[in-house]
Amino acid sequence: MQEHEKRELLLSVSKPARYLGEELNSVHKDHDRVEVRFALAFPDVYEVGMSHLGSVILYHAINKRDDALCERVFAPWTDMEAEMRKRRLPLFTLESWRPVREFDVVGFTLQYEMTYTNILNMLDLAGIPLRALDRNEEHPLVIAGGPCAFNPEPVAPFFDAIVIGEGEEVIHEILDAVIHQKRIGMTRAERLRQLSRIEGVYVPSLYRPIHREGAFVGVEPLEGAPMPVRRRIVRDLDQLDFPTNPIVPYIQAVHDRVMVEVFRGCSRGCRFCQAGMIYRPVRERSEERIRHLVREAVDNTGSNEVSLVSLATCDYSRIEPVLKSLIAEHGPRGVGVSLPSLRVDSFAVGLAQEVQRVRKTGLTFAPEAGTQRLRDIINKGVTDEDLMTTVDAALSAGWHSLKLYFMLGLPGEEEADVLGIADICKRIMALEARGRREGRYRGKRLNLTVSVSVFVPKPHTPFQWEPQLPLPEVERRIELLKRELPRRRIDFDWHDPRLSRVEAVFARGDRRLADALERAWRLGCTFDGWSEHFSYDKWLQAFRETGINIEEYTGSRDPAAPLPWDHIDSGVRKEFLEAERERAFAGQTTPDCRWAVCSVCGVCMDYGVQVERADRT
Q1: The CATH number of the domain where 59 resides is what?
Q2: Which residues make Cβ contacts (< 8 Å) with residue 168, sequence separation at least 6?
Q3: d(CA 122, CA 41)
């Protein structure tokens, strides 16, 4: 594309900086001097994709190689898509503005089920056949990875290969294989068979789902493909070359800060949480390594905020000394440190006081459920006393903006649990009023935000067999909560339950959903995670026209029946998940194995990983 054509295109769309690709720390390589070219595709807009740490890590890892290059491509916003189609421009990468179809590998992130239609749209814009079986030797390999890969079946027909698990090490094995394949001139079929022999790489065309009388009965491997496909896991985070020179976006990203991962995994065992299962076990970075990474990241980006990220950063065993040393070093320069996840306890509030000396924002906590009975069912280790003590500590420390996250429709939920959410909020407001009368709280009045999402059963969790609450009942409970919540100084927002319905279908779906997904895209569904673009009616039409019964996918599952993702080994044993399900409905909690005894989930034993045990109480 000529420069004047590029300029004309950018001037015709909103936020043209999304497509420039010349940001600080972006990498530009000569395509003729490398052996393999990788297009890193994130199926959402630039602002969202630039906040994704996994993409930052892979971009860095690939571009460190002398024989490879990696360039980024995001889902073009609707105005850019319209211009591209009108001008017959193929989807291009940001760094070189080269067509994506000219790359050797296109790698998509499966971060969220509601981005699946964007994947099809990006393939179509790139001029790459949607289905893997329709591609020939001239087309790039289309691969994927991410949390949704742990049930790859709904999108399996669209990918040549899917990575299960952590990508930092396996990506190099894939690139080495692709280089070898190009040198000796392997056919596409031969290339896929070779990729399937790499641990953690799932090649859908080498597995055949079996249905009898309309019921799923299992998956059959073909041509000696491995069964099951074992998840890849990085054993020592300190040995990883973590990126400290991330790209600095031209426009504000969703998470506008430098990210440093302090540990990976979570052992708290919330029974609804997929991430807490598939990222086990906990592996920590050393204090010295964290300080070094933060120092380099601040110097390389000029950022004024560093976020210490993990699934539960407060659980890092040396979080206090690390925070104090980072604040002492970077605080005088106006650089703040943030914790994206806080426990519901006063210890977390104390940490928040430390990190927000530079810049004070609101606090967010996730009790998840409105009563102790339901929190025990989901194994959320939070008591009513914990919550009120935490709020008291926050108000005493001067916070006046709090946000609480809850779920509706959790297994075992009753109307009393819904009313319990409103009761918690009333108690918090009463606590504040009493504290002000006693002179313990000063400053602005408390503003409380209550955010509610809808439970979606996810694979590889103890609740993978449980039904999603029917849509009319979810809507009734939302209305009940709206009526019961105090209206003064409480903001209430909720996730669209219709969107959660579609998400649940794909979360536990099988390959039969591929036709429905393609039909929904052809009906115009894209950017389904954006409320202004989501069309439930189009999705219902797509399901109806392809013979999909929503209730079959959102209803309860028989624990004795095979599941569409049984051939994917997450490391957590199915027997452990079944036992946790039984404990849930017995009202029994399971302690965190980092602080108590091993819960025998199977990860450490089967994958040979030494669990990171903590000594802080």
Answers
A1: 3.40.50.280
A2: 57, 58, 61, 234, 240
A3: 9
Helix 346-355 to helix 384-396 angle, to the nearest 10 degrees?
A: 30
Q: Is 218 found in the same domain as 238?
A: no
| Domain total of the chain | 2
List of E strands, 181-302: 201-202, 207-212, 215-221, 229-230, 258-261, 263-264, 283-284
- Choose one of 192, 227, 262: the last residue of a domain: 227
Question: Are 183 and 278 within one domain?
Answer: no
With beta carbons less than 8 A apart as the criterion, state whether 440 and 400 touch: no
> 315 near 279, Cβ under 8 Å?
no
**DSSP character for 250?**
S
Helix (H) or strand (E) run with residue 42 in it? strand 36-42
Separation between Cα atoms, residue 436 and residue 151, nearest integer Å = 51
What is the block-wise mean pLDDT of the chain (617 residues), using blocks of 10 residues?
86 94 95 98 96 95 98 98 96 97 98 97 98 97 98 98 97 98 96 97 97 90 95 92 91 78 93 95 94 94 89 90 92 85 76 67 88 97 91 88 95 97 96 93 91 98 98 97 91 96 98 98 97 97 97 96 96 96 96 87 82 53
CATH number at 279 reads 3.30.750.210
Of 429, 317, 416, residue with least CA distance to 370:
416
Give a yes or no: residue 10 inside a domain.
yes
- Tell me: do 149 and 245 sit in the same domain: no
At residue 517, what is the residue type? L
CA–CA distance, 57 with 511 (Å, rounded to integer): 30
Specify whether the CB–CB gap between 43 and 142 falls below 8 A.
Answer: no
Rounded to two decimals, what is the model's pTM?
Answer: 0.95
Residue at 255 is within a domain: yes
147 and 290 assigned to the same domain: no
Residue 403 maps to a domain: no
Range of the domain at 15: 3-227
